[in-house]
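Box 4.2: Ligand-aware structure prediction
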Amino acid sequence: MEAVRVKAPATTANLGSAFDCAGMALELYNEVVVSLNDRDIVIIDGEGKHELSHDSTNLVYRAIAKVADCAGIPLPPLKIHCTNRIPLSKGMGSSAAAIVGGVVAGNALLGVDLSSGDLLDLAAQMEGHPDNVAPALFGGFVISCKDKQHRIVSVRVDAPDDLFAVLAVPEHKVSTREARAVLPDVVAHEDAVFNVSRAALLVAALQQRRYDLLATAMEDRLHQPYRAPLVSGLQRAVSAAIESGAVGAAISGAGPSVIAFCARDVDSDGTRIGEAMVAAFRGQGLQCRVIFTRPTNIGALESVGHLPI
Ligand code: HSE
């Protein structure tokens, strides 16, 4: 008998301008160990231990069930042990990590030979959009869209290894549903062009390590202006990060966290940027913690390991 272990990274979607179409994996992993058992057990340690469900409604469980369903095989009883490090409902891809951890573990444990494209389609269906699940699966920086047949088309590029990420994570929670409900149905042509040009610039700037362009490339008019009122201090924290030396900053995913990048010493620059963001939130009466991390090129697919039990 053996167990399958998968490590699924946190992800930051949008990076400001690339709304709903790009995301980057971060070096902060949830780990899931799954084995066959005589009855279903879900154990959760770390983030969400007291909030997440411990039965068949658990997202990791449902993702494994989805793989079995897709392969047309019955789902055997499972022991699922999650060690969660990604904060929940903070715009850091915790649900994408759960889904991706589940589909990758299910594929390996049940001996189902779904391709990486199939796993991406399954995970994106469950999540509702591909921008977090794609980098959680593949690592790196991933640009995704749906083709005319509604299949996800994605291109992964290595994330730069000389960038550091500083995340200010407010105590406030924002559900993606709430953050999407405030978006308008129609946007001005000028705003669409503003974002398209910056999203294209973002891809080139990351590939060519033109960090001098990153602050401009991460500007956005499609979601951040509408989401900022949901959490006091959000827009101020983005500006404070840039003013204190970040090469780029944006709301992470649907928020409420803010991600800022620095291209040099994370100990000095990162600390200053983190403090500036904390002060911006504190000025609005919100406490937040700071997470220092970096982009990672190792996604869940590459992390799969088999353990004896
Ligand atoms: N692109 C999505 C959004 C990411 O901004 O709503 C949600 O994590």
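In the box above, the bound molecule is L-homoserine. Residues 13-14, 19-20, 91, 129, 131-132, 176, 179-180, 223, 253-254 surround L-homoserine (CB under 6 Å).
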